From TrEMBL:
Residues 75-365 form the DUS-like FMN-binding domain. This is tRNA-dihydrouridine(16/17) synthase [NAD(P)(+)]. It catalyses: 5,6-dihydrouridine(17) in tRNA + NAD(+) = uridine(17) in tRNA + NADH + H(+); 5,6-dihydrouridine(16) in tRNA + NAD(+) = uridine(16) in tRNA + NADH + H(+); 5,6-dihydrouridine(17) in tRNA + NADP(+) = uridine(17) in tRNA + NADPH + H(+); 5,6-dihydrouridine(16) in tRNA + NADP(+) = uridine(16) in tRNA + NADPH + H(+). Its EC number is 1.3.1.88. Gene3D superfamilies: Aldolase class I. Keywords: Flavoprotein, FMN, NAD, NADP, Oxidoreductase, tRNA processing.
Amino acid sequence: MKPKPKPYSFLPLNRFLRALQSRPLMAQTPTSLDAEHPSDNDQHMGFRARSLSGESRAEQAWAHWTKLGRPRFIVAPMVDNSELPFRMLCRKYGAQGAYTPMLHSRIFTETEKYRNEEFTTCKEDRPLFVQFCANDPDVLLEAARKVERFCDYVDINLGCPQRIAKRGYYGAFLMDNLPLVKSLVEKLAVNLQVPVSCKIRLFPNLEDTLKYARMLEEAGCMLLAVHGRTRDEKDGKKFRADWKAIRAVKNAVRIPVLANGNIRHIDDVRDCLEETGVEGVLSAETLLENPALFAGFRTAEWVSESEGTNVDGKLDQADLLIEYLKLCEKYPVPWRMIRSHVHKLLGDWFSLQPHIREELNKQSKLTFEFLYDMVDRLRATGIRIPLYKDTQVELTAGSYPD
């Protein structure tokens, strides 16, 4: 049976963070895509989920989650934006797990260049979810087998609501074909040596959502991430995520559950964990502007919402961009990804210095030299846009108590 989680109490924020970040995470040693595949007797536990009873699958799901250290703060999957350098930057500042960007299973199986450019990882990049979109069980399995030795979960994207997902018939548009969804999960659950996870959205009717979640669990899903909006609620600023619905899903299944939606700063992380009872929280859009969110930093936009006293955290988005660029030099990724992060991190700066943004946009081919010089020019204007930190948060980035 699933162990009963202890109810969250309303601790001071510093004690809350200490409690969540005190458990060490499991060390991993992934290699390259060309490395020899490990045997079934290697470090993997073997997840032939369909051959087990429901209770045994739940026990195995919790054993694996516990082995990973039960990560609470997780980088959500973002197309072109949750690539290795960005994941490593977020991990430095408190993230305890991360998803890859969504990978297209068919292209991943067919195109070596796509595999080499779109999926990269390193020894320290764990726990790691590798996410695929798919509508063909056999193609999905072929793609998943290429990455299973480098990750802790193979994740199926069942939540993308964008037009491209509708055209490609994947993501949240598979909610109209539950037998196909079930076959995708079963195919991986029976054949992979790592567990299957799924990321979903809500149906308009809560009971339909709960039936959906139970079906996924029965098919072999061992971890469920729930975005608390429906397929039609694409605008996160217009539609608030439904945490009560996420809590209902949590109570309806026996496997670990993660929550996604409404995470703007660390207070939201605490509130979400308390209100939903889930095992962890995903953040996407907010991390793009503030990769130090999980370390307690927040942008000026959210300072007024804090219950505590916020001070200049001696860190700003330009500092984070420099760190990100150095990680990109170490772990190369396509320039389109780098360009996107530059705009997200320096948006406030560019609004004050639009001529520098225009020069960036004119660059058909970027270089690190140009980007480092651009940051220097922004700093030379004498304007600084700091990130703030609550004085209740005593932890420093990347350093947590034992």
